[in-house]
Specification:
209 residues, eight-stranded mixed β-sheet, Aminopeptidase, alpha+beta, 9 helices
Length: 209
């Protein structure tokens, strides 16, 4: 059973261990199935998210119930570009993890749409804040327990402790009504909608009050 950071009712929040990343990748993929990382499989997702979380300027907390079951996770960073950079060794491991999924129609469509929109997307992303809430998801079985709000509070504490003095970035799919409503409720400011590969994305900026 996990123990560490803090508790809210029956849940405990702490950085995930090496044995949690497959479960985290599965949870994220089930919550955001249209994301490219989700389409490339749980082993790809586990490697990718673990790489970001292990950076010194990144933060990751997972929520567990009293039996040790994963209930939610949040991942954020102070420097989105550095956090998502990949060295050669990791690129090879990610390619091997993706395997034949790289050749699926959905992945081809993702790359094709990205190539067509690359100039406009690059221009629109130029003024993104460096800090970003990359992903926050809660398992379907545990929704309604304010786990998402608590995870966001943990991430914002990390940002404050590292002297972040400007808003951080949140990106959501335009079609994801639940996420868009949540971020509006917690005080995020909607900036714009822009094309990103095969979907439309909403850009939000969230200040630290």
């Amino acid at each position: 059973m996990p123990n560490g950071k803090g508790t809210q009712s029956a849940f405990i929040y702490l950085p995930p261990g090496d044995n949690h990343w497959i479960d985290i990748a599965v949870l994220i993929a089930s919550s955001i199935p249209n994301a490219l990382i989700s389409r490339l499989g749980k082993h790809f997702g586990a490697l990718y998210y673990k790489n970001i979380a292990r950076r010194e300027y990144s933060c990751c907390y997972a929520a567990f119930d009293k039996t040790g079951r994963l209930a939610g996770v949040i991942l954020g960073t102070l420097d989105r570009n550095e956090a998502k950079s990949l060295d050669f060794s990791l690129k090879i491991r990610l390619l091997l993890a993706a395997n034949v999924r790289l050749f699926s129609p959905a992945v081809f469509r993702w790359f094709a749409c990205g190539w067509r929109n690359r100039s406009a997307t690059k221009r629109l992303m130029r003024d993104f804040p460096k800090a970003e809430l990359i992903v926050v998801v809660v398992h379907e079985d545990f929704k309604g327990n304010r786990i998402g709000r608590t995870l966001i509070t943990e991430l914002e504490s990390f940002f404050r402790n590292n002297k972040l003095d400007f808003p951080y970035l949140i990106l959501t799919e335009k079609s994801n009504r639940v996420a868009n409503v949540l971020y509006e409720k917690i005080g995020a400011q909607f900036i714009k909608t822009y094309p990103y590969h095969d979907k439309l994305m909403n850009e939000w900026h969230k200040p630290l009050f």
